[in-house]
Each structure stands twice: as structure tokens, then as C-alpha cells.
Amino acid sequence: MMIELIPTAFLYIAAALILPLLPQTRARGALLLLVPLLAAWQVWMLPEGIYARTEFFGLNLELMRVDKLSRVFALIFCLAAFLGNLYAWHVNDRVQQVAALVYAGSAIGAVFAGDLMTLFFYWEGTAIASVFLIWARRTEGAYHTGMRYLIIQVGSGVILLAGAALYWRETGSMTFETMTLGSPATWLIFLSFGIKCAFPLLHNWLQDSYPAATVTGTVILSAFTTKLAVYALARGFAGTEILIYIGAIMTLFPIFFAEIENDLRRVLAYSLNNQLGFMVVGIGVGTEMALNGTVSHAFAHILYKALLFMSVGAVLYRTGTSKASELGGLYRTMPKTALFCLVGAASISAFPLFSGFVTKSLILDATASQHYPIIWGVLVFASAGVLSHSGIKIPFFTFFYHDSGLRPKEAPAHMLWAMGITAALCITIGIYPDPLYALLPYEVVFHPYTIGHVAGQLQLLFFALLAFGVLMRTGIHPPEIRAVNLDFDWIYRRALPRLIAWLAVVVTRLWHAHSAFWQRRMLGIYQRLYASHGPEGRMAQVWPTGSMVLWIAVLLGVTLVVSFLKF
Amino acid sequence: MTTENIHHVSASLGDHLPVLVVLVPFVAAPLLVFIGSRRLAWSIAFAASAISLVISFLLLMRVIGGEVISYHLGGWAPPLGIEYRVDAANAFVLLLVTAIAVVVLPFARESVRAEIPDRQNTLFYALFLLCLTGLLGVAVTGDAFNVFVFLEISSLATYVLIAQGSYRDKRALTASYDYLIMGTIGATFFVIGLGLLYMATGTLNMADIAERLVDQAGNRTVRAAFAFIVVGIGLKVAIYPLHLWLPNAYTFAPSAVTAFVAATSTKVAVYVLMRFMFSVFQPVFLFEVNTLEFIILPFALLAMFAASFIAVFQSDFKRMLAYSSIAQIGYMLLGIAFLTETGLTAAIVHLFNHGITKAALFMGVGIYALRLGGSFLDDIEGAGRRMPWTSAAVVIAGLSLIGVPGTAGFISKWVLVEAALEKGWWLIAILIVASSLLAVIYVWRVIEVLYLKAPKGDVIVKEAPLSMLLPLWVMALACVYFGLDTDLTISAARAAAEGLMAGTSGMR
What we know:
The complex is a heterodimer of chains A (about 575) and B (about 500).
Chain A: H1 2-5, H2 8-18, H3 25-45, E1 49-56, E2 59-66, H4 68-87, H5 94-112, H6 116-135, H7 140-171, H8 184-196, H9 204-209, H10 215-236, H11 242-260, H12 264-285, H13 288-319, H14 335-348, H15 355-369, H16 373-399, H17 413-431, H18 434-439, H19 451-474, H20 488-533, H21 545-564
Antiparallel strand pairs in A: 1-2
Helix pairs in contact in A: 2-3, 2-5, 3-4, 4-5, 4-10, 4-13, 4-17, 5-6, 5-10, 6-7, 6-10, 7-8, 8-10, 10-12, 10-13, 11-12, 11-16, 11-20, 12-13, 12-15, 12-16, 13-14, 13-15, 13-17, 14-16, 14-17, 15-16, 15-17, 16-19
Chain B: H1 8-15, H2 17-35, H3 38-63, E1 69-72, E2 83-86, H4 88-115, H5 121-140, H6 144-163, H7 171-201, H8 206-213, H9 220-237, H10 245-252, H11 255-280, H12 286-312, H13 317-337, H14 341-372, H15 383-386, H16 388-402, H17 408-422, H18 426-452, H19 466-484, H20 487-501, H21 504-507
Antiparallel strand pairs in B: 1-2
Helix pairs in contact in B: 2-3, 2-5, 3-4, 3-5, 4-5, 4-11, 4-14, 4-19, 4-20, 5-6, 5-11, 6-7, 6-11, 7-8, 7-9, 7-10, 9-11, 10-11, 10-13, 11-13, 11-14, 12-13, 12-18, 13-14, 13-18, 14-16, 14-17, 14-19, 14-20, 16-18, 16-19, 17-18, 17-19
């Protein structure tokens, strides 16, 4: 069959080349929808195996390594590309459209890459394509954000290349398979994956850039880059114990920032980071069950995170703002968007019957069964945090709470369709997870709907809901601090958010101090460099003929000395 | 060789290829002045270069397998007679030089018309051919003194060519004068070195010298000769502290001259350096190892960084590229300093790849100078929209300069990193990558100015004429082609490196 011979990524890239030539907006939109479907069909049909081997510069490249792990990621990427493009049907900007195609294609190409070299090519491809989704906003701020994003992403690629080169020297093989941390090569590769996966302290690009992209750009951005990193970690470093702790920290710290953040898209970016933490823990645990949990969670996560970004994006599209303080009461005029947002919120909070529940509990169970009780506790706490900032804060402040007076129109039909399909998928997975489980890399022997799971999760959720309700009723939720009744119980409930807020402030200050210090240092270095190497600097002086001749004499002298010395 | 069995006339013509490659432009130069027709001048120059290109290609195909062609000038047998020797190393350089000449000449037509008064055109092309003759002669000859003679021919022609820039900017005269002083000192050192070698060996044939030097490693005369030759050629190469002539020469020369000279003359000098270091002197000589390790290597690293930093701060695109050239020469010297076959391969591949990259970039600069009146970053603001074809090609070549995968620049840096790792010099491998990041900065500055700044004024700017765009795109596409298909470059460079590393035995 012909289609086997074409790597899936090439379908996207070919479409990206054709797309600018199509004159009609509709034709371009149709192409954008058709390509992911075609690609998904191809991925679905391809039996496992290695295709499209080629040789480049003495290296054997495997452009298409189809196995269960890569297939499920490729499928969800195709699905995400389809939904994202449907959501972006109204966009008539060829730059964004081409970028979205190349971006999705590169992500899928990276997933299918059987060797580190191919992985590097696509790795950089995702970086370069995606930055245009940020720049497409065409504002000064977006330009600078995009620049920072690009530098970090390309930097990650360069580190990957360095690691790959060292790995090649060490092992003589470029094949991308499970590695053990230890040598500089594997550490470099690990670091490069970590940057893209937004490990703690390497995460800032995420919250910086995602909220800065266009309405539709953020939806597309949220799907690929970090999940590609999750895939790469799962492929390369499954069972690496340090990942458990990294992941646990990742689930925790974004919560605090998300609580106090006002821009809802940034809240979602933090919560994205937190969700990645769950997946990273799963990779770190590394058992079959844990990896299943990671993969399925990535699958579900891409959908509900996209759904949340879509709903907030729709609000931003209609009202021009995504700030919690300026929104509220929008359910009156945007009821459908509100409903879809609630579905997304329920999914991310892992309500039973929604997708998050059937996937996250896999990771939690795997952690518990491998005897990491503390980590398990952290994850449970983080789950409650997720509920608070993503599950409740997002829909509550946007669509309910006090009336902002805004009366925007309902979201456009194509956005509603995109959200509707995504929401339906979230619910379907939640109710009937077996097809998803069948896609996973290992056999699943897990039943999410046991009394223990459901009851435990509901307890957690209802208490969190209750707490939130009380906090809001009494007005001590962070953004709205007013005088309150000083009841003992409430002091406890109030002190905690305050403590958290205080912690966040301290951490932020420390971070600022740290970055300010480096900024000063860098500025100093820059100024010194400019003084010496700038156009007026000593190093750049060329005119005096005498100085040139002096240098000749000096160099001749030195060369003679070195030649005459007997070592 | 099989040619001896073929029909007499064709056989003798085929056998004369090594001298014809030099002779054709050498004869064409005065011919062009005698005819004196402005219209014909360009055509003759182009035809002569094209013939040389074909010959170079034929020569490379013959020697790529590792053979050596020895041609006795006038039938006088070496070591008394002058010998032309073609092996993979210099055939590769011949191909580069002639190919650049053939591509730059069509570009030069419009550019020269705009930058140089019409009455000088004939002489300009004659000088161009003389410069080409010199460069080809340096590469092809197997006689040490002959190298000096051809080096002077090309240098004298280059001085005058650079001075032609004075019609646009008088500083070209000073730049040319400086280069003249420096170049003459360099040539003098070189010839002093040759004299010392002659003292020690009594011969000027390179292969012969090499043979007689084998057991003279302890001879102080030989050591002094080595130092003089390295520094003398080092000036032509623009080894880091001896680079001071280069920025001004490149900046103020006419665009076509810069494009040609930047892509060829330093490259030929690098070739000469390699030839003397590996074929004439022995890589096993301790003083040579020491010189490479304690002088060439640190200065190569210094060049990679210092020159790149200077390039980052430049406000003139052309000058930025000149400094970038100094940094890139650092990579080639680094490859030589590794003293391994892979290192030499990297140096030779980079010599080629950087040649085509820089030719493309300087042609782009020439087009901007023609259409926008200058190459300062201020001048080319927003040119990406007004001159999309030119700018796109400049971006491709810029990516190759950085060494982005899929471009020629990546290949050579990859081999260089490979060579560094092969020696176990991690730190240097990291430094190579780090200095490439500096290239990202200065190339990005240009891309930013081209595409993200609004064009100045409402003057309508036309895209460049096809005769300039075509050569530019040929070079830009070559940057991509040689980034994907490395068969020709890598295998030729490897053959060349093998020949050079074989030392004396390679010369026999």
C-alpha cells in the first residue's frame, strides 16, 4: 500500500506546503481538517513495525517506528490537531494555519522517530513551527515572549543534539530506546526532555508563552509540546526513580501559583504543568500499570485541557479578556460554552464518569501499589488542588459568581462544535474507558468503577467543593479578601490559603531576586563585551597599520620560540 | 593511466589539463585587454572561467579515487623542472575556486556596472581573471617557489580589485593599502621560509623537499623555515591576530570582489597551509605538533569567539560577514590543529561549504547595496517584503552559516564535532557548538531587520535583476543541496585528507 511508504509527518508537511497556495478560506479550512483525519486513518491502519528507513550521512534513520506507545500518542495528536483546527475554522491567517500543520506534523514525526537524529529534527520542528502561533498575535509583548520561548525550545533541541552525539559515541547506536541515567550523554538527553516537559525550575517558558499566544494558538500549543516530552520520557526513561520526585514537585508547586493568578489562561497553564506532574510520576514508577496510566492520562489530558482552553478562549474571543476579575455571570448568554467548560472542569478534577477519573486513578493506584505512600499523598493533595483552581475557579469566575455585566454572544458555531466533540469524548472515555484501555501499550487489568475508587474520589471532591463553597460564601477565597467571622474552624481554613499565598509570594520574590541577580550579571557581561568587541571596542579596531605589523612580529616570535623549544 | 592508450591528440589534451586550468584564464586576461571591447570583456572572462571549471571537474573526477597526476611543465622533469601535481586535495580547491568564479561573474555584471565606472570594466575583468589565475596556480602547482609566484599574482590582482571600491567609498584605498602592506610582509616571510628550506634541502620541488626533510627534524634552519612559512601564509589565511586586513578589505571592496575573494582567497591560503604542514613538513615533527597545539589551536578558538562577538555588534551587514569569516576560518584551523584525518576532512569540507555560503551571503549584500544603497542594518530594514527573493536566499545562506541541520554548514560542523570527540576533546566540541550560538545571534539580527522591521520611506524598491538573483539562488540552493547530499563533498574531502595525512608518501 502506498500510504505506508509516506511517513505520517510528511502528510502534514506536504499539506503545509500546499496550503498557502489555496485561494479560498474554506478550502484551506477543509484541508486543515482533512489532513489530521487522513493521518489518523493511516496511523490506525499501519501494523506495528519499522517503516521508512533511510540513511543520512552514515546514520541509519528510522522515520516511522510504529508500536503501541507511539501509535496511541500519534492518534491523540491527530485528534488534537483535528479539534484544534476545527476550533480555528474562523482564522484566516495563513501563517497560523501553516504553523499549526507543521507543528502537529513535527510532533507526530517525533513520536514515530526511531532514532535520536530524527527525533532531534522534529524536536526542533515543533519549536520553530509553534513559535509562530505566539508571534501570530502580532503584538510587541507576544514578540518578546515568542523570542524567549524560541530560545528555550531551540536550546532544548541543541542539548538533545549534544546528548545524541555523545550517546552515539558511547554506544555506537542512535536508536531511541530505554536509557539509564548516568553518563553525560543520557543526562543531557534527560535535561532536554525535562525542559520541554516543564520540569520545576525549567518550567517558566510554559506559563510565559501559552497565555501569550492567539486564542486558537493556545489550544493547539497546549496539546503537543509537553506531551511530546512526556512521550519521550516514557520511551527513554521509564522507571527512572528521580522522575517520581520531580513529578511530585511538579504536581504541587503550580497549585499555589494557579490559586493566586488572575489571568485564567495562565491558571490553565499552571494546571497543565501540574497535570504533567502526574504523568511524570507515572513514568518514574515505570511499572506497566503506571505507564498505562501515564499514556491514558496524557490522552485524556490533551482532550480536557484543550476543552478548557477552548472555552476560556471562546470567552476571550467574545469579550476580549480572560481575567477572572473582569469576568463573571456569562452563563446567561454563553450557556453552551459554560456547559462544555463544566465538562472540562469535571474531567480535569477526575469526577467519576468523566475522563480524568478513569486515567488518573491508574497512576494513583500504581503509585500506591509500588509503596510510595508519601508520593501517593502528595498526588491526592494535588488532585484536590486541581479541583480548586481548574475544576472550580475557571468555570465559577467565568460563567457564574457576580455578574460582570458583560453580555457577549454565544461562541461561534465551529467553536461550539469543536468543544462539543471534545466534551463528548471526555464523557465517553469516562463512562466507557475500554476502547482507550485497549489502545494502551500494556494490557490493562484495572476497573476504575469500584466502590473504593468512586467513594474515595467523591469524598475528596465533595469536601473540596464544600470548602470552596464555604470559602466563597464567607469571602475568604484569595482574590476577595474581606472581613470575616472569626470562628476557629474558619481561621484554619483561612490561614491555609494565606499561608499558601505567602509561600507563593516568598517563592516569587526569591525567584525574582534570583533572576534579577542574573539579569544584572548578564547586563554587566554584555556591557563589558560591548566595550571590548563593539564597533568602538579595542578588539574591533583595524586601522593602524603599525598594530597589524606588530602582531605579525609577535606571532612570528612566538612561533619561532615554540618551534625551537625542545619539549 | 588509461589515457595513454587513446588517440594521440585527445590524449595529450587530456594530459595537459593541469596546466590548462591555469593557462586558460591567464591567457584570457591579456586577450581581453587587447580586444578592449567592453561588451566582450565579460563574455571572455565568463567563458575562460567556465572552461576552467570544466577542467577542474574533470581533474577531480580523475583523482578522487586517490591517484596523483604529475605534470611536468615544458617536459622538464622534476625536481629541476616545475611540476604541477593534482591530487584530491587541490582538485577539490580548484573546483571550489572555479565554481565560485563562474557563479559570481554573472552576478558581477550588474553589480560592477553600478559600482565601477564603465571605462574600467575591461580592466576589472582582466584583473578578475588574473586573480583567478593566481589562485588556481597556487592550488595546482607542486613547486614551492611557484606557489609564491602565483600567490603574488593573485595578491597583486586582489589589491587592485579591492581598491576599485574607492569609487563608492574612498576608504577602499586605505583598506587596499593596508592589505598590500600586510600581504607583502606575509609573502616576504613566506619566501624567507622557502629560502631557508632551500638552504636545508637544495631543492624547491615540494615532494623533493619533503623527502629530504624527513631526517632533518632537528635542523634549526628547517624549524625557522616552518615558523616563517606558517606566519607568512597565516597572514593570507587571516589567522586570528593576523586578520586585521580582512574586515576593511571585505567591507570596502566592490560587492562582486568581496563575494569572490571571501569565498576563494582565504580558502586557497588554508589549502597552502595544509599542504605545507602535512605534505612538505611532516605531521610527526615535534615542532609542528607544538606549533599546532600551542599557537594554531588557541588562536583558532579565540577567533571563533572574539570575531563572532565583534560580528554580533556590527551595524553593517557586510562587515558583520567579514568578521564572521574570521570566525569561520577558526573552525578550519581547528580542524587542522586536530592533526587527525577526520579533523582534516572537517577543515576541507568546511572550506568548501563556507565558501559557497559566504559567496551567497556577499552576493545578497551586493544586491542590497545595489537596490537600497547600502548594506547597513538601517538600510536593509524591511527588505524581506520588498525584495522577497533576495531575502529568502540570504536567510537560507544565513542558516547555513549558523549550521542549521539540512544546510551545508551543518555538515562541516558535524564532522568537526565528530573530530573533536574522536580525540576526546569534549570541551572543544562544546565550544564549537557554543560559538555557533553566537552565529545564531548575528544572523538573527539580520533576519529580524529584514522581516520584522517596517521598510523605511515610500520609495518603491524593485527586486533584484534576474542576472543577480540567479547566481544568488544557485549558491543558496547549493547550501541546501550540500547539506542533504554529502556524497561529493565528504568523499572528496576524505580522499583529500587521506592524501594529505599520508605525508611524503602521498607526494610520491
